[in-house]
Design brief:
mainly alpha; 58 residues; rod-shaped
Length: 58
């Protein structure tokens, strides 16, 4: 009976799960941010390339 009580009172498991969820959310936000920056950078270089070609600069 005391082992069951200790199991129900123990908070190590839920704490680990909370940290795992927070880590997953942080990683997701980082990946979205990195992808967004990558897309914006690619668009910037493509626009620059198009403008240079339009003005005869190769």
């Amino acid at each position: 009976m005391s082992q069951l009580r200790r199991f129900l009172v123990n908070e190590d498991g839920p704490t680990a799960v909370e940290y795992a969820v927070m880590l997953a959310l942080i990683l997701l936000a980082a990946l979205v941010g990195i992808a967004s920056v990558g897309t914006a950078t690619s668009d910037l270089f493509n626009t620059s390339s198009s403008e240079m070609q339009a003005h005869g600069i190769n």
